[in-house]
């Protein structure tokens, strides 16, 4: 018991961990190890993958992780056999990478007793297992406590949970079966078993979207996002080389955080689709929304800056277009004035021409009358 407590007290607090007491099916037949479902739902990959198990001496073993069953299968038998695990042993699993456990073993028996068990072809150990303990937030060990010389942990090469440290109670398969059968929310049975701590994981340690997880105030929420929104949010985080939600207020619920992230992605995509014809009302609405999210702690200043640049360019372009139109309008006014002056001259010329034509008509009638009088005159 003290050994387990000491190990947990000396683990690096920035990485989540859980403990597991070995039962008969884990070490003598079947060789199928269920990990705590709440821990897996929050911290483990959503798809089947290969997990690295590193023991206290630094030797590594590969084991298959079955996501649907939250269990280790192929490869676990070799680890169990090589370490001569027996019923009652307690294992502390320390997640130091997205798919890597550092495993610490607390023996239920002395090594001589374990050797005798494995020399027997038929293992029949009836020892009472060490009782599992439910741990609250890990406290700093007292000065009187003897510090263990734990092996240094390799820095995580993949994503590790960003917002929580976990120590779970699991003294049998009952916890896993209860969650499987009742289909309950994994967080409903955590209570004192899960405590969230601030993350010290740098976003730079995230190598790909496969390792990208979103944890807000101790709750993992990336599984609640669609693949599209998760991908787009990952791209936004990559552009800033940081989690945009790192400084989100602690009072923000996971549901509200999901809505905020979704709205940010929608606005980002709308910004990408902007045109010259985009109205000032749209720019104003987007900026006000992002400003509200910024006040809640989201890192969206870069989006607001881009909005401001686009808005400024749009205004300048519209002003430029307006100036060209004004010049064109002035030119047309000059043309109109010139044409009006020409029209006045044409009207004057037309009037003179009409007057001349009337005079000619009158003269024609006069000369026609004289001509007829001359025709009818006496010889």
UniProtKB/TrEMBL annotation:
It is found in: Nucleus. The keyword Transcription applies. Residues 329-370 form a coiled coil. CDD domains: B3_DNA (cd10017). Residues 18-109 form the TF-B3 domain. Pfam families: B3. Keywords: Coiled coil, DNA-binding, Nucleus, Transcription, Transcription regulation. GO terms for cellular component: nucleus. This is TF-B3 domain-containing protein. It comes from Gossypium laxum.
């Amino acid at each position: 018991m003290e050994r387990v407590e000491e190990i947990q007290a000396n683990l690096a607090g920035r990485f989540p961990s859980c403990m597991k007491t070995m039962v008969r099916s884990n070490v003598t037949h079947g060789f199928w190890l269920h990990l705590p479902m709440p821990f897996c739902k929050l911290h483990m990959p959503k798809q089947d993958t290969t997990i690295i198990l590193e023991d206290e001496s630094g030797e590594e073993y590969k084991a298959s992780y079955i996501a649907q069953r939250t269990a280790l299968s192929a490869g676990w038998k070799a680890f169990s056999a090589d370490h001569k695990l027996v019923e009652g042993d307690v294992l502390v699993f320390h997640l130091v990478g997205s798919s890597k456990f550092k495993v610490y073993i607390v023996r239920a028996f002395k090594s001589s007793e374990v050797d005798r068990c494995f020399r027997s072809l038929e293992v029949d150990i009836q020892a009472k297992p060490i009782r599992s303990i439910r741990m609250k937030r890990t406290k700093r060990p007292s000065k009187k406590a003897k510090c263990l010389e734990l092996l240094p942990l390799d820095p995580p090469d993949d994503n590790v949970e960003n917002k929580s440290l976990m120590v779970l109670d699991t003294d049998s398969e009952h916890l896993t079966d209860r969650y499987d059968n009742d289909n309950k929310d994994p967080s409903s049975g955590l209570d004192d078993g899960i405590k969230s701590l601030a993350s010290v994981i740098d976003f730079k340690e995230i190598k790909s979207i496969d390792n990208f997880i979103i944890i807000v105030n101790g709750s993992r929420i990336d599984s609640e996002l669609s693949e599209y929104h998760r991908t787009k949010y990952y791209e936004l985080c990559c552009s800033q080389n940081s989690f945009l939600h790192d400084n989100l207020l602690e009072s923000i619920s996971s549901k509200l955080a999901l809505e905020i992230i979704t709205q940010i992605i929608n606005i980002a995509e709308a910004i990408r689709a902007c045109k010259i014809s985009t109205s000032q009302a749209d720019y104003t609405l987007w900026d006000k929304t992002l400003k509200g999210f910024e006040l809640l702690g989201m890192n969206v200043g870069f989006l607001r800056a881009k909005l401001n640049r686009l808005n400024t360019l749009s205004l300048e372009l519209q002003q430029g277009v307006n100036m060209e139109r004004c010049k064109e309008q002035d030119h047309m006014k000059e043309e109109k004035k010139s044409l009006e002056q020409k029209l006045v001259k044409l009207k004057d010329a037309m009037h003179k021409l009409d007057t001349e034509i009337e005079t000619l008509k009158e003269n024609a009638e006069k000369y026609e009358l004289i001509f007829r009088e001359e025709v009818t005159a006496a010889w």
